[in-house]
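Reading group handout, session on sequence-to-structure problems. Before we discuss, look at one worked example. The prompt was deliberately terse, the way you'd type it at a terminal:

> structure Rubisco accumulation factor 1, chloroplastic-like

The input record follows.
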Amino acid sequence: MAMLSLTSPKLTNPFFQTHQHHQLQLHRHHHQQKMKSVGPISATKIPFLPTPSSSSGELYQPFRPPPSPLPKKYRSLDPAERLDILRNRMGLWHEYAPLIPALANDGFSPPSIEEATGISGVEQNSLIVASQVRDSLLSSSFDPDLLAFFDAGSGADLLYELRLLNAAQRAAAARRVVEQRLDPKGAKELARAVKDFPRRRGDSDWARFSASHPGDCLAYTHFRLSREALSAGDRIAALERAMEAAETEGARKRIEEEMEKAAGGGREGIEESEGAGRVTVPVVRLRYGEVAEATSVALLPVCRAGEGAEGVAAAPGWCRAEGELGVVAAERGWGRWMVLPGWGPVAAVGKGGGVAVEFGDGRVLPWKASIKSGMEEAVLVVADRGRREVAEEDGFYLVAEGEKGELGVESGDKLLEKGVEEALGTVVLVVRPPKEEEDDQLADEDWE
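And the output record:
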């Protein structure tokens, strides 16, 4: 059989070599003419990039992926076997939780994992986040022996609630969860209190509670909420919860002082006869979104202070819902309305007797001199027009005063001294506008 020659005839042909040399000369000549027509070009020197190396003189090592987060016993398993472990919940939750992101890296989506294992997407996320929180506790000063508490089925839900805390807060909160045997709802409440406590720096009595003790953070939350309570019973109940949560002696002492004050029902700086009751006017500050979250609301006509007694009398006396859609209708047209949560004092106002009066400057109300400097803001005074008789010396009433007959608020004892036995209505609530940083609620003793 004839062998194929690897030698090209063109390479050995003298004529072809001469022709190839001639073509090369023509190409060089054409290139030189083209460069002359373009003109001189400045040469650009490409900088030399040395190969990266470490400071110790070792050769540069390329990037290597981090070690697999999977436990060693799972690394050799194929996806089908990993899905089987998740489906049957084989092992502790924090052992098989890393299988979920590993399957995601293999191309599985949360819906496909849910279809194969029965673990919903929400639960998948909870397991992954809780596993990360647990790993962060292992790398901190947290006692490893306490981690066994979170091995139970609800352990993932407990640790998931601590996800928003920093390392120090997380370790302290987890320790508190173990000590108090909290459920997921209690862990969530604790974590929110710990997260919120530093933001309250500068608030009244904040320094009496300790930021390093999660129980104190939760106690301060209940302590602050007690000042927003609209009844003495709710206030005392909130203070009792604060006392149960407090860890430090300073926090307990401050709560005890407030409990004694709430149980006594008296006002500082006001003389009262033994056993006499006191009529209190709650002062609350609205929070953003509070009306939307309320289970019931009240719709009140609003007057301006300058409209006087005529404005109060002209405000609609009743509002009612009509039809299946509950459309609200008033007895007569009115231009200004206010929607408030259905707080106790507002809900207790007689049907059609409620009216709200807007004051542009809260300092016109009979506050103590020490409080007036902090009231340079608009306030809304809610009054019950069905209770006009000045029957309580300690109550506060809506009146028309001065030559212009502008609306104002006066205490019952001063009205009785003047011989005034009937007012425009009894004040039941004072509402302050919302702020980004909620300040302290006023107490009963802040009135004159």
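Points for discussion. First: The CA atoms of residues 308 and 406 lie 5 Å apart. Second: The first helix runs from residue 9 to 12.
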